[in-house]
């Protein structure tokens, strides 16, 4: 059964005019239910993750100051969010959702988190709409609890997964792979194990050829027994922050390639949604919904 992490907390309200589209976290599960892709039984409400598990990735000083709302103004500004206890609670629950989804994936082959993909959170700071790094915490959990020995993080958000790269910079049991806009945020990139910088305006054809080539090349150097997939849809041509030129069909083919890669190699995969900032919310929802449809078609 396809298991999907979702909580009402995912749709935590932000001030009017804030550019981060929180409403997608409410609308996406509604769309999936309406079209019959999933049923209510597919969803689970995740628990907040234990703080000791978060400390396996994030510094105790940063986590303590985040929880006590004691970040500096510049630290808060870097996150892009107005800091609040409710926002921190939401982030900790998202981490719980990704970890629980990964455990379900180890049983069913695949599982999803409606939120997550918070790849800009570093070990000791947040930035870019990310307070804590669910990809990193989940990878560490899988290794520590012997669900996996080698974890591959496939990050296909248009923005480089700089926080994830920093956290696993010197690790050989976690491989970070990021395809992202070369001239897009963050302007100072970190070094992933494999970075593929993309020119502005990159099309479906070029993107998909690069993705296929590099997924295959990873296997010559790294043998994952678990995959975490950041499936951001800010690669769309319509995205106001993306600067690439992928179509909805291109995003579908991208997701199909990744899920086929996991299925045929019998590697469990946990998918989280990442970014998406198209002006029309329907475009964001449709692009995100595709990966859920593919999960049902390929795995079940």
UniProtKB/TrEMBL annotation:
This is Deacetylase. One of its GO terms (biological process) is epigenetic regulation of gene expression. Keywords: Hydrolase. Belongs to the histone deacetylase family. The keyword Hydrolase applies. GO terms for molecular function: histone deacetylase activity; hydrolase activity. It comes from the Bacteria. The lineage of its organism: Bacteria, Pseudomonadati, Bacteroidota, Cytophagia, Cytophagales. It holds the Pfam family Hist_deacetyl. PANTHER family: HISTONE DEACETYLASE 12, HISTONE DEACETYLASE HDAC1-RELATED. Residues 18-286 form the Histone deacetylase domain.
